[in-house]
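User: Reviewer 2 asked us to show a designed sequence for the structure in our supplementary figure. I'm pasting the structure tokens here. Could you produce the per-position amino acids so we can include them in the response letter?
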């Protein structure tokens, strides 16, 4: 049996990244309602379930385009506990990086180029690593884009696996509409290109259906019809999912453009993160600038549908941070080979120019450094780490007793008290607190809103965001919470901007139901009494 080699610097970095990603706490609480929704789907035996977590939109049938993802999370949680979810997170985070690296290797990019590309991706994306269904769209988009690219450039004929990818993707995440558009765009352009001939055209012949090895990088015989047939079937497969027409219409609903959606960091424009440490967003714009340079000098080496994909992802990525990962990784997968070829072309034709000479020296230095034993690829260590984590995740006594289970930002102590005291009812809280209340109390704790921002009417999200901060129209909003929706309890922060309401009420509520340095629990009657005392004080001061 061969012994594992001594781990080098690259291996130590990669193993550390995997372990930190696995053992770190989840960055948000979306997974809580996703697990609960998965359980509802399984228990009720239907893909679209009525709302049962909240008391504000109870009974309404909410859309659910992620049912398969939620069911997978539920089974992972119910069978293996937190460890099962953590291993899923590792798979979701590192699979896109693997796909990018594999594509760059297939394109002939040298090892130091692959390390630089993946290093840029890790540096940029690591702060946002989390258990999110968004990764399903990133994985699907990378698979579809590279399969289409490899087919259209004659590297590998399009596989029927495209149909399976689109079918599964359409039941995992609504971002499959980007894949639908990509397939239709590729088919449409390649037929139009038969006339325009901006790129090397695909062979429209029906006589043969396999690639001729002698054509090398040129078109495959019959490849246009193969693209059309398999692409059309893959597109049709996406309709084997809940509400495919509603899924297409959903992103264009006006409530999704409401300003309150920007309270969720993933919905904020990408440029707003430029000035925030660790300033990683700048790397995305640097990669975009380099890819744009290749488009200028190597325009006809890109298929036009690839340029349309870049443009669409650039728009989505700048509109909302949640799409920045797709933009960056697709640029790295399809643009890095063109950057390498442009640099090689410059080395042959413009070596004497000062700027080119400097870039070539940097390239040689990086190549020498990253080709050294310190940065040699050691897959055995990565495989061993993943196998060890998988074994830990599949062994319930270990997977259910994971360290670092709770974030310091969650109201853990408050919910411990609520559970021990048997408190139940309707809870008003900020969206993240609402998600945690629902997770810990289940049917005993109905919530005003939670982090399912797309499900709730904007006015309810505004209430849960502005009331704790004494924001616009907070008093009228609080009256709605107390009287229209008959809330029983308010779970609030005591510090920071979201502690403003409690700081106002504190003098008039001497004995809250629970209080610690982070969180306070108030009964609705206590809040009403506190508001009346504030009103009396204000009237007395006005006389």
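Assistant: Here is a per-position design you can include in the supplement:
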């Amino acid at each position: 049996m061969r012994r594992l080699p001594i781990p080098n610097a690259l291996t130590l970095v990669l193993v550390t990244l995997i372990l930190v990603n696995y053992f770190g706490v989840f960055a948000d609480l979306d997974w809580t309602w996703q697990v609960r929704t998965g359980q509802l789907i399984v228990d009720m035996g239907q893909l679209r379930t009525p709302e049962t977590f909240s008391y504000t939109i109870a009974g309404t049938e909410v859309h659910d385009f992620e049912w398969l993802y939620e069911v997978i999370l539920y089974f992972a949680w119910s069978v293996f506990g937190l460890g099962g979810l953590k291993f899923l997170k590792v798979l979701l985070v590192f699979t896109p990086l693997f796909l990018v690296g594999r594509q760059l290797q297939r394109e002939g990019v040298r090892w130091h180029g692959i390390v630089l590309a993946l290093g840029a991706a890790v540096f940029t994306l690591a702060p946002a690593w989390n258990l999110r269904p968004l990764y399903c769209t990133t994985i699907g988009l990378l698979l579809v884009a590279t399969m289409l690219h490899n087919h259209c450039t004659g590297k590998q004929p399009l596989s029927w696996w495209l149909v399976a990818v689109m079918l599964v993707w359409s039941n995992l995440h609504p971002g499959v509409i980007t894949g639908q558009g990509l397939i239709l765009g590729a088919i449409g352009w390649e037929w139009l290109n038969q006339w325009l001939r901006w790129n090397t055209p695909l062979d429209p012949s029906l006589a043969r259906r396999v690639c001729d090895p002698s054509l090398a990088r040129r078109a495959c015989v019959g490849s246009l019809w193969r693209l059309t047939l398999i692409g059309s079937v893959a597109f049709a497969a996406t309709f084997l999912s809940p509400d495919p027409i509603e899924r297409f219409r959903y992103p264009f609903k006006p409530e999704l453009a409401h300003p309150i959606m920007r309270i969720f960091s993933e919905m904020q424009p990408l440029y707003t993160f430029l000035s925030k440490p660790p300033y990683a967003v700048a790397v995305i714009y640097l990669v975009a600038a380099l890819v744009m340079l290749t488009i200028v000098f190597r325009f006809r080496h890109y298929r036009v549908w690839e340029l349309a994909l870049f443009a669409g992802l650039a728009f989505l990525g700048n509109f909302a941070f949640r799409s920045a990962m797709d933009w960056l990784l697709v640029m790295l997968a399809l643009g890095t080979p063109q950057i390498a070829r442009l640099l090689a072309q410059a080395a042959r034709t413009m070596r004497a120019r000062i700027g080119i000479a400097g870039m070539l020296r940097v390239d040689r230095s990086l190549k020498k450094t990253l080709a050294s034993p310190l940065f040699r690829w050691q897959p055995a260590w990565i495989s061993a780490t993943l196998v060890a984590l998988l074994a830990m995740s599949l062994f319930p006594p270990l997977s259910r007793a994971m360290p670092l289970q709770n974030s310091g930002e969650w109201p853990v102590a408050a919910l411990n008290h609520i559970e021990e005291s048997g408190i139940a009812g309707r809870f008003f809280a900020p969206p993240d607190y609402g998600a945690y209340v629902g997770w810990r109390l289940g049917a005993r704790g109905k919530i005003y809103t939670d982090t399912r921002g797309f499900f709730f009417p904007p006015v309810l999200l505004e209430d849960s965001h502005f009331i704790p901060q004494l924001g616009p129209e907070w008093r009228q909003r609080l009256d709605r919470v107390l009287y229209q929706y008959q809330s029983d309890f308010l779970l609030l922060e005591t510090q920071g901007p979201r502690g403003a309401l409690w700081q106002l009420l504190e003098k008039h509520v001497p004995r809250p139901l629970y209080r610690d340095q982070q969180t306070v629990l108030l009964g609705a009657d206590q809040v009403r009494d506190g508001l009346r005392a504030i009103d009396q004080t204000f009237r007395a001061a006005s006389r």
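For the response letter, you might also mention the following. Residues 385 and 537 are 64 Å apart (CA to CA). Strands lie at 425-428, 445-447, 489-493, 514-515, 519-523.
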